[in-house]
Amino acid sequence: xxxxxxLHLIDYAIMAIYFVFVLGIGWALKKxxxxxxxxxxxxxxxxxxxxxxxxxxxxxxxxxxxxxxxSGAKYGLMTAxxxxxxxxxxxxxxxxxxxxxxxxxxARSVPEYLKLRxxxxxxxxxxxxxxxxxxxxxxxxxxxxxxxxxxxxxxxxHYSIIASAVIVLVYxxxxxxxxxxxxxxxxxxxxxxGFLPLVIIGLQDxxxxxxxxxxxxxxxxxxxxxxxxxxxxxxxxxxxxxxxxGVDWFGMFMGLGFVLAFGYWCTNFLVVQRAMAANSMSGARxxxxxxxxxxxxxxxxxxxxxxxxxxxxxxxxxxxxLIGDKGQTDYNMIIxxxxxxxxxxxxxxxxxxxxxxxxxSGMAGNVTAFNTVFTYDIYQSYIRPGKSDNHYLKIGQFxxxxxxxVSIGTAYIAANFNxxxxxxxxxxxxxxxxxxxTFMLGMFxxxxxxxxxxxxxxxxxxxxxxxxxxxxxxxxxxxxxQLVEYPSGMAQGxxxxxxxxxxxxxxxxxxxxxxxxxxxxxxxxxxxxxxxPKTYDEPGIPWYDKPVVMAVIIGALSIxxxxxxx
Amino acid sequence: MDIRFPIGxxxxxxxxxxxxxGLFTMNDAELYARSxxxxxxxxxxxxxxxxxxxxxxxxxxxxx
Lengths: 566, 64
Known about the structure:
Strand content of chain B: under 5%
Helix content of chain B: over 70%
CATH architecture of chain A: Up-down Bundle
Number of domains of chain B: 1
Number of strands of chain B: 0
Order of helices and strands of chain B: HH
Number of domains of chain A: 1
Oligomer: heterodimer
Structural class of chain A: mainly alpha
Largest sheet of chain B: none
CATH class of chain A: Mainly Alpha
C-alpha cells in the first residue's frame, strides 16, 4: 500500500523552484571567479557561520542519510555515537589545535600541508588516494540521487544520472567552492525543514518517545538483547556481546572516538577545506565549533526515523514497507520509505527535494575537494608547474568537469556492485586511520621526518588491509585467513582502524629516530606546534567569538547530551 | 552576495506555496490520512514562512 503514491503538480513545482535557486546561486557567483584561489579556495572571504554549516552539510550526503537511517534501525540510538564521541571531540581538537597550522601556513590543501611539513612523496600518496576516494564518494551520492529519481519520480535511471550530473556540474563550474558552500548552507536548512515533520509525525504515531521505547524494547528482546539496548548509548557497552553493534566501550572509545573520528574530521580535506575558506583565522577555528552545535542534534533527524521504522515494521498491521522491497529488507531505503508513508502531496515534494539536496551537497562537496587537490597537488606539482594563475583557474574548471565525468563512471560501478558502500567505507578506514597518526606526530613532534611519515603511512594502510584480511565479520573480510570473528562489520572496522593507527604511530616514531631530519626549524615554523607562536587569533574579537570559549560550551553541551541519552 | 537573501527568499516562496495549499485542502481528510489527520502542509508552510521572513529581515538590518 505504501508504494501507491503519486506526485502532483505542487510537488514538482517545489522541486523546480529549488533547482532554480541552486543554479541561480552558482550563476550569481560567476562574476567573482577570476582567480584560481577564488574558484578553488572560495577566496578566504566567507563568514564562519556559513563555513560552519557547510562543514557538516558537505558530509550530509547519501552515505550519511542512508547509512545513519539504516544504522538507527539496526543498532538503535547507539548510532548517535557517530554524532557525539565520534565527532565532537575531534571537531574541538581541529578547531583549537590543528586549524592554526592549516589556515596559518601557506598550504592550500591538506596534501600541500604534508608537502610543506614532510616531503613530496608523502603529499603524492595522500593526494592520489584522496582524489580517488572523492570521485568514488561523489559517484555514490550521484547513484543514490539517480536511484531516488528513478523510484520516486519514475524517471529513467540513465537520464537521472545525467540530470543530477549536469545540475551539480553547472553550479560548481560557475561558482566554484563558494557556490558549493553557499548551496550546502541552503541544503542544510532544507534538510532540517524537510525531515523534521517526519520525526514529529512518526513519534506521534508510535506514542511519543515513551511509546517508541516500549516498542523498541520488544524489538530488542526479539533479537536476543536486553530490553533497553535500542534506546541507550553507553549503557550496554560493557561487553561486545550485550549490544547489537558488537562493540565494547574500549573499541568505541578508541576505534570510533579516537582513530576514526580524528582521522576523518581532522585530516579529511573535504571538511577541512570548508574551514580554510573562512575569512579569518578565528573564523576558520570557529568553523568546526559552529558546525558541532547542529551536529549534536542531527541524530534526531537521521537516526530517530530509522528507530521509528524498525518499531513500525515489527508489526505488519502498521503497513510500513520499504521501497524497493524485493523480499529482503533494504534498510538504506528507510528515510525515503518513511517520507512516502507519512507525507501528503505538497510536503512530499518538499521531502524529496530535501533528499535530493542532501545527495547533491554530498556530490558537490567531493567534486570541489577533488578539483582543488587535482589542480594544486597533482597538476601543479607533477604535470605543469610554474604556469600563470589563469592557467590553473582553467585547469580547476576542467578538473570540475573531469571530476563529475569520472563520478558518472563510479556511479555505474556503485549501481552494479551491491556492497560498494561497505567497501568504500572500508577504504576510507584504510587510508584515513593511519593518516591521523602522521598528522599528530607531524604537528606536535618536530623530530618526525619525511621518510618516517611516508613509511609509517604505507605500513599503517597495509596493516589495515592485513587486519581486515585476517578477520571476518558478517561474512566480510577474511581474504587470507579467519583468525578472529567480530560480531559486526562495525566492530571489525573500529578494530581495523585501531591497528592501522597504532602501526603507523609506532613505526613513524621508530623510523624518525633512525633517519635524518631534512627540514630545518625555519622550514617548520608555522607547521609544528612547538615552533609556532601561540597567539593565533586576530586581536579585538569579542569573548563570545573566541574559539576556546565556544569549545568549552560545545564540550559541556555534548557531555550533557551524552549523559541524557546514556 | 549575502547568502541569507536567497535562503530567505526560497523559504518564503516554498512556505507560501505549502501554507496556501494547506489552507486550500483544509477539509480534505483523505489527503491527510497519511499524516495522522494533521494538516502538516499548513504547519510546515507557516514554519518556513517565519524562518524565511526572519532571514530576509536580518539582511535588511545589516544594510542600514
